[in-house]
């Protein structure tokens, strides 16, 4: 078997095992979609496909939210795994940086690290939060937190602080205005931007229907 393929197959097995008990928002199928999307975007960009695939597959193996906010657990676990495969050190370091910096809120240069490969995986991860899948994930999350679908009396709050966001108990529709509809302007790659535009338009159409149905108008 080709070496690249063998590395990816071993990584898929490892990630499935690591995520066996993951919560719904970050289960194996989130990884699967991000991986497929990252490959799709990488086909249109000059990039190291092995780094892109490993970054996508390993980006959520240990979410700091569930590990006392420790941002280094994910990179460390992924690093140990990649060392067991004896991958080149520059590949290991690059993938660890992707895992470290993928969820940083800032744009390219505020991160302290940026590469095309990071941009691709980050775009793929953001795409999974918008469009049809993004809508499903948002309502799944809201249901898990026992939140209302919508409340016409509760306005969205833009630019919530991190602390405020943690305690935010607003209806799920508000999340569209606070986060999901803002993602299309944060995309890194040309293909990512195009895909985000389509998914964005779909969410806007979805919201129009939602409000019309809410008021018995359609
Ligand atoms: P990620 O780890 O992908 O950066 P999060 O862990 O914040 O993102 O969110 C995972 C999923 O849950 C995403 O689809 C996101 O839109 C959704 N989500 C996060 N916070 C909320 C919220 N307050 N209301 C509804 N959905 C949310
Ligand atoms: Ni993710």
Automatic annotation (TrEMBL):
PANTHER family: HD_PDEASE DOMAIN-CONTAINING PROTEIN, SUPERFAMILY HYDROLASE, PUTATIVE (AFU_ORTHOLOGUE AFUA_1G03035)-RELATED. It comes from the Bacteria. PROSITE patterns: HD. This is HD domain-containing protein. The lineage of its organism: Bacteria, Pseudomonadati, Bacteroidota, Chitinophagia, Chitinophagales. InterPro entries: HD/PDEase_dom (IPR003607), HD_domain (IPR006674). Residues 27-130 form the HD domain.
């Amino acid at each position: 078997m080709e070496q690249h393929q063998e590395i990816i197959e071993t990584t898929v097995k490892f990630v499935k095992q690591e995520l066996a008990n993951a919560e719904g928002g970050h289960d194996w199928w989130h990884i699967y979609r991000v991986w497929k999307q990252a490959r799709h975007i990488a086909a249109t960009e000059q990039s190291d496909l092995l780094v892109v695939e490993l970054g996508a597959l390993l980006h959520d193996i240990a979410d700091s939210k569930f590990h006392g906010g420790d941002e280094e657990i994910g990179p460390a676990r992924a690093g140990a795994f990649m060392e067991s495969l004896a991958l080149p050190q520059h590949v290991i370091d690059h993938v660890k940086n992707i895992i470290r910096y993928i969820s940083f809120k800032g744009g390219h240069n505020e991160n302290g690290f940026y590469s095309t490969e990071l941009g691709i995986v980050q775009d793929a991860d953001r795409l999974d939060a918008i469009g049809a899948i993004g809508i499903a994930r948002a309502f799944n999350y809201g249901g898990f937190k026992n939140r209302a679908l919508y409340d016409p009396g509760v306005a969205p709050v833009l630019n919530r602080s991190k602390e405020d966001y943690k305690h935010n108990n607003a209806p799920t529709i508000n999340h569209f205005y606070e986060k999901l509809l803002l993602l299309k302007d944060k995309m890194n790659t040309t293909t990512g931007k195009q895909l985000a535009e389509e998914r964005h338009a779909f969410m806007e159409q979805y919201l129009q229907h939602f409000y019309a149905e809410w008021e018995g108008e359609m």
